[in-house]
Design a protein that fits this description.
Blueprint: H1 3-37, H2 44-85, H3 90-117
Helix pairs in contact: 2-3
């Protein structure tokens, strides 16, 4: 085999093992939940409320991540321009990029709060 092919496979194999372990863990979690809940009955009214709750959580995470991506794009471009002119400001530039990423965290926290109420 060619060395480049071997190097590519050496990079892919650990990722495949990790993905397989995650899938096994998720499958066992689903099977354990089915055994634990057994006789719970979901009424149509409760299903309707849960549907809108899941949609609200998905929208909050999606729009929060989208907003964070746009903010990091603008702030990151400005930060790189500033660091190119004055390298001593790299720490301040990274702080502003981190603040822009905080928008996604707020969306995730809001989604967890919504899902906690369901």
């Amino acid at each position: 085999m060619n060395r480049s092919v071997v190097k590519k496979w050496m990079a892919v194999i650990p990722l495949a093992i990790f993905a397989g372990a995650i899938l096994c863990g998720l499958a066992s979690t689903v099977l354990a939940q089915e055994a634990a809940h057994g006789d719970t009955v979901l009424t149509p009214e409760h299903a309707e409320v849960m549907k809108w709750g899941f949609l609200a959580a998905a929208i909050s995470v999606g729009l929060g991540s989208l907003g964070a991506g746009v903010a990091v794009g603008y702030v990151g471009a400005a930060a790189l321009g500033t660091v190119g002119e004055r390298p001593e400001l790299v720490a301040r530039a990274l702080i502003f990029v981190g603040l822009a990423e905080g928008i996604a965290i707020y969306g995730l926290i809001l989604a967890l709060m919504i899902l906690g109420k369901l």
